[in-house]
Amino acid sequence: MKKILVSSVIAFALLQNASFAKTYAQVNGSDVTDKDIAALMRAMPGVAFDQLPQEAKTQIINQAIERKLLIEQAKKEKIQDSKEYKEAITNIEDDLMLEVWMRKQMDKVKIPESEITKFYNENKSKFAQPETVKVSHILVSGEEEAKAIIAELKKAGKNVASKFDALAKEKSKDSSASNGGELGYIAKNQVVPEFADAAFKLQKGAYTTAPVKTQFGYHIILAEDKKPAGTIALKDIKGQIEQQLKLQKFHEEVKKEGEELRKKAKIELSK
What we know:
This protein is an alpha+beta fold and 271 residues long. It has nine helices and eight strands. A hairpin with a 2-residue loop joins β6 and β7. α1 packs across α4 (83-108) and α2 (34-41) packs across α3. The chain is flat, with a radius of gyration of 25 Å.
């Protein structure tokens, strides 16, 4: 139970320290921001909103809009003046006090540059990354339809990238269609073998000139960029390492504080 409490408090502290700047919608003049999205994402630990498919993102944004509307309605009905609300506030005061204290303790934790560099050098194998290719694709049900799309791309000449984007939005049945078919950078083991084989054979800027058949249908794949296998540079991973070390040190210091307080306290366990 203690570990669960500490974990939830840490998550709260990290969320509260984040910079909530992005606005996704407006509800009666009030912004729906990253903070509103974060409140819903707490129900999905380990899942990052930015990594979700567009369809799932849209669903969560709509849930955040509905949540804000319901909060507005609760305020209009003056729930804050009710006996039940006041009792609930009293019950959570201790938890809230602890969470704010935890946040302040987290703010005090500082990680020297030397510790970040040392951790990176001692754990370089953890930062190895495979060869990746940035791809977009158009997914259709039939081979003939895929061939017709390829024929249209061949007519596009130097404008193939913009043509691909337009055709993906118009014809692709994949959830990535609204984003021009973009899937981002992928490694070979992240997609089905047939897709990976075709994608990694492409040169940067090229697309498949024959439909690629998978269990999902027929794909036309565009390689937008390629990155060779290698090790992520310290400058690109520094922030994540710092946050990891900060969280580790924070957890150790909170545990030590708890043990010191326990030594000084009068504790009697019920039999």
